[in-house]
Amino acid sequence: MVTQEDSGVCESCQKTFQYYLIHCGFNESAYAYCDACGCTLLIDLPFQEPGYRADLQAQGLVSRHTEKWLDRCSCGGRFKAGASPRCPHCKSELSPDTAAAYIERNAPGTPLGFRWQRSWSDIYSIIIQGHLVKIDYNAQRRA
Asked: What is the distance between the alpha carbons of residues 143 and 137, in angstroms, rounded to a whole number?
């Protein structure tokens, strides 16, 4: 997992925040964002147990069907497939198109052709200001 933090700027309040990206394909993980505070939920999935992935697909956003199985965020919001990351200062939803400017500016692969996915529902998830809840699906299944 890449944990180098870069800086972004909220398009609503113009305040700076730290972020880092997670490539969910490399991590075999699924993710969702809280609909109230924008916290990222990252679910680590088993690598070779396809029977236990019936409700969760690795390498991207959770499905709407999966939402009902997810616990609430500590802020009281819900982790949802349609939610977006939010500014940690004003709680406004962040635009994936606007985020492309700072993500591509900061990404070391941009000179080699990397382009941001311009979506909060693809292979990359974003962690804003360290707001992350992580679940190990293997541990949950064994409990």
From this structure: 10
